[in-house]
Structure formats: C-alpha cells, structure tokens
Specification:
Blueprint lengths: L1 E6 L4 H11 L4 E7 L10 E2 L11 E4 L6 H11 L3 E3 L6 H10 L4 E4 L5 H17 L4 E8 L9 H13 L5 E4 L12 E8 L5 E9 L2 E9 L3 H14 L5 E3 L1 H5 L1
Parallel strand pairs: 1-2, 1-4, 2-3, 4-5, 5-6, 6-12, 7-9, 8-9
Antiparallel strand pairs: 7-10, 10-11
C-alpha cells in the first residue's frame, strides 16, 4: 500500500486528489498538511514540522509559501515529493534543484498528461515553423487564479524556446501605440474569467496560414490523476528531479 502525505489537503485540488485516491486500491492518504482542519478521515497538521506520520511520498497542491518547509521536510525524512504548486520564484526553483541531489522530486508546470503531450507537439512544430511563423500562447483560467501567466504557459514557452536554442524573448501581452510585434518574441497572454478550469493554445501564425495546438481541461480531475500517477512513479526512485517527460517515455 502506497502511503501518501497530502499537502494542501483541504484546498480545491486536495479534495479532488482525496476523492480519487479513495476510489483506488493500493494507495491511501495517511496524513495531510493544511492551515485549516475539516472532517478529514486522516490526521491533518498545520505545518510539516508538526507531522509525526511517515509516508512513502508527498503530493503537494498547496501554496508557494509552503515550499521551503516542504523541501526541508522531504530532504530530512528522505520522502519523495510530487510538487504540483505553481507560481514558484527562481529562488524556490533552485532550492528544489539542490534538494533533488538528496531526494527524488517530481515537478511539472502542469500535471495533465495531455498538456505535456501538446508541449512536445509544440516543440516539434517550432522546429519546422519558427523561421517564418510567429508564435503566440494564450492561456485561460478561472477568475480566482492568483498567478499570471500560468505555470503551464511558462512551461510550454520554455520548452519551445529550448528547442530554438533560447533565441526568443517573451512578451507578456501588448499595449500602446508602439506595440508592433518583434520577430524574435513569443507572445504570452493571460485570460481570467468565470470558472474556466484551464485552456492553453499555442498559435503558429505564418504567411497565409495558421496552425493551432490546443488543450482544454474539462475538470480538475485530470490534474489530480496525473499527480497520483506521478506519485506511483516516484515512490521507489533514487534522488533526482523528474517530470512528466519521464512518465511519457
């Protein structure tokens, strides 16, 4: 039985992860981390330092402010962690990279298998089209999302840029009377409204033709399912930093 410590267990994603795990065999939540306590079927601690229950893997859907404590706990207890929280700054990302030398960590800008697949497709398209096509990314999310652009938009843009030897600059939206597009940029645009779960479109606009690669999330379950899949993948791995590409292989 795979034992999970669920960070952010009482948030929206934490609840979805809990529901999916309860419907599966050979995996269970043995404890949770959250600032609020509700009627959970497992003990919940406000901070990692208070947690006294050993787990095989951590699944994290919390807040970027929780990352230092999570990483320290993961290293101290040698507990692998699936980090699903987005909006991380460079300092935290570096801390994750450093910690991965001591413990197995899994990080992805999006836990959906479909999103990670279209990211690979976007890379392949960029190899063929970048010389004569402009590249734009539009992401849409619900009106309560805090960070913009989304971690997924950054993930897609970074993957494309890596394919193109990091030759592109990012332009976050356009405004004004001198906003003409530069050839060496990737435009990234954020839309916020209603209850949109998540939508990402990569546009390749060329001479007289347009190609679009698009992913639409219909519910949060796809992200929870991806996180659970990652937890099962990570449980017995040696130290290192893993992502969805490792699962897709």
């Amino acid at each position: 039985m795979l034992k999970v410590l669920l960070s952010g267990c009482n948030g929206k994603m934490g609840k979805v992860v809990t529901e999916l795990i309860e419907s599966e065999n050979n995996i269970e939540i043995v404890a949770g981390i959250d600032i609020s306590k509700k009627h959970n079927k497992f003990p919940v601690f406000k901070d990692f330092k208070d947690c006294t229950i050993k787990a095989d893997v951590i699944i994290d859907f919390s807040h970027h402010s929780m990352m230092p404590a999570l990483i320290d706990y993961s290293v101290k207890t040698k507990t692998p962690a699936v980090i699903c929280t987005t909006g991380l700054d460079e300092e935290i990302i570096q801390k994750i990279k450093d910690a991965s030398n001591k413990v197995a960590l899994f990080k992805s800008g999006n836990m959906s298998l479909g999103v990670n697949l279209i990211t690979k497709l976007a890379q392949e398209a960029a190899k063929v089209l970048s010389e004569s096509f402009d590249i734009e990314i539009i992401e849409k999310h619900h009106n309560r999302k805090l960070d913009a652009p989304s971690g997924t938009a950054y993930m897609i843009a970074d993957a494309i840029n890596e394919t193109l030897n990091n030759s592109k600059e990012y332009n976050f939206g356009r405004y004004g009377k001198s906003a003409k597009r530069n050839k060496n940029e990737i435009g990234i645009h954020a839309v916020r409204g209603g209850t949109i779960v998540g939508e990402h479109t990569v546009i390749y606009a060329g001479p007289d033709e347009i190609i679009e690669i698009k992913h639409t999330a219909m519910s949060r379950k796809i992200f929870a399912a991806g996180a659970i899949k990652a937890a099962k993948f990570l449980a017995n791995k040696t130290s290192g930093l893993y992502n969805m590409s490792d699962i897709l292989k």
